[in-house]
Amino acid sequence: MSAEATNPDAQSRRRGLPRIDLRRLGRAALLGPASRDRLPDAIGHVAEAHRAHHPDADLAVLRRAYVLAETSHRGQFRKSGEPYITHPLAVTLILAELGAETTTLTASLLHDTVEDTEVTLDQVRAEFGEEVTYLVDGVTKLEKVDYGAAAEPETFRKMLVATGNDVRVMSIKLADRLHNMRTLGVMRPEKQARIAKVTRDVLIPLAERLGVQALKTELEDLVFAILHPEEYEHTRALIAANSGTEDPLTTIADGVRAVLREAGISAEVMIRPRHFVSVHRVHLKRGELRGTDLGRLLVLVGEDADCYAVLGELHTCFTPVISEFKDFIAAPKFNLYQSLHTAVASTDGAVAEVLIRTHQMHKVAEAGVIALGNPYAGGGPGDGADPAADEREDPTRPGWLSRLLDWQQNAPDPDTFWSSLREELAQDREITVFGSDGRTLPLPAGASCVDAAYAQYGEDAHGCIGARVNGRLATLSTVLSDGDTVQLLLAQDAASGPSPDWLDHARTPAARIAITGWLAAHPEGVKIPAAAPRPQMSVTTDRRSAANAVTDLPGATVRLAGCCTPVPPDAVTGFAVRGGAVTVHREECPAVARMTTLGRARVGVRWGDTAACRVTLVAEAFGRPRLLADLTEAIATAGAAIVSATVEPPSEQRVRHTYTLQLADAAELPGLMRVMRDVPGVYDVSRAQHPAAAG
């Protein structure tokens, strides 16, 4: 049996007012079946809730599903002694109240038949079709006889893969777990705790990501009561202590209604009590609770524009708490949630949090993906097509789910999958970064360039040696921010591989699993070809003749600054230094700003008629044999003379070459830089810009 039971009201009585009255649905499931010639009473409750959201729904299929479920479960009882059929009925009633469409309700009635009775998937397919069969199969557990201790993680793996093709699978599982949590009281305490921990670590985060707040908040309270009974009782006492006093939110709500009425805005204003866990969090954050902390105001309007109109009136007629303002309409959360959040203070100083949304936003905020109805109408798994090949626009396949489906394929064993799944779901915020080709990469907050590399390239990211973030070179450990543009740099050498240090920077399971697998397969690591040992080639030249610049100080020796190596036609300025010389810098050189701050007087500089110049270039490249030879050959071919060259020791498979070059004509510089960039392995060539002394 897949469900445990006691009195369905036992757990829910501990709660405050729920956001949607799910408690009465559990009671409805206790009604006995009616005669075969009319709709059973319990299905009558399902029909009533279903028709409230879908007035034209065909209920005949629900009756057939109920008859099959009741017949197949007949003689089975829950641990509380109730007929087993009460469980699938209660699960279906929960989903019906949230607005699930007919196919989901049909599968919900049948969700335990294949697992716990003699009914087969072929029978379900013959009677109800492919779509219902897919949903029933998706929530059917794997047998412990076949999988042993791996049964639970492998069941979740199977369920999540099915959810990737049809999110309604997880909708049924969440409602199933909610009813089981409500009826967990007859189980042994240790089993209650085990089920509650899995619910906390896996099911509640999934409910949050799918936007099903009505289920998520009740699951949180039920888990809270089991795993933290002392804190739960303390929170219950806090709520009870304030229940007998006048709610200060009532006065503020009346004021809000009056303001909106005067402004001609049609709106519904109501008080939303916080659930137990929410009250507990507020108490931890603020210490002593105020009367207004036990609830929030909810303002429902017709159109998106009305939300902002309400916000404007509230901020005009009340004192706004600006730090509490959040706009989740312009920037929706990754779980479909949309609302405006604000807080206002009344004349007596009472502060109330306010949520502003349309009626449709409210429906989605409560029921999440369930409120979408059937997002696969016209092309889902039930039509026999390949779901993966269907390029429909699907809001039920967000970034976190796509990431999860990708990395789970490479999880080598159930334990790795189970621990990685919990780590993935513990990430409660997402960012979106952009590849250099414009591709979007959804990642968890705190992700690094390592995570972006594996998200974009999979195992090819083993050869990643660096990145450009927003156009600037960055290390792989760089933490990314929402909206960053990332260009990943891959090594040419197929033998390249990740460093163990990458595990310190990897936030996503996909990256960690791939890195761990590569390191296990290559215990000897990667041997990086040795770079040239800092060869130094220098030529002593006459700075006076090399400096093709004329200063406003007659007879002064002109020196081109080594920190920025200016060449015509760069905008330049000069500073007098010891010995009567003038050092010439590019205007954007950091040394110019530094010396100006020190009060050093500038000297006017202009370029002379001679076209020859000297410049220092820095080439960033992947370490490989013959790189130095190829670069020097390219420079010679371009007609430049090498004055000096320095090769730094390789770092993270990258190497930096610095060349000081003499050019016959400054106009040749852009072409020379292009030639150097064309050398295999070179990914950037730039003018030198490094600190130099002020004088």
Oligomer: single chain
Number of strands: 21
Largest sheet descriptor: 6 strands, mixed
Helix content: 40-55%
What spatial form do the alpha-carbon principal axes imply? elongated
Average pLDDT score: 80
From the helix content, strand content and strand pairing, which structural class follows?
alpha+beta
Strand content: 15-25%
Put simply, the count of helices is: 27
Distance between the termini: 84 Å
Structure, described:
The strands form 5 sheets. Strands 1, 2, 3, 4, 5 and 6 form a 6-stranded mixed β-sheet that branches. A 5-stranded mixed β-sheet has the order 8-7-11-9-10. The chain has a 4-stranded mixed β-sheet with strand order 13-15-14-16. It has 695 residues and is an alpha+beta fold. Helix content is 42%, strand content 16%. A hairpin with a 6-residue loop joins strand 19 and strand 20 (654-663). Helix 9 (130-139) packs antiparallel against helix 11 (151-165).
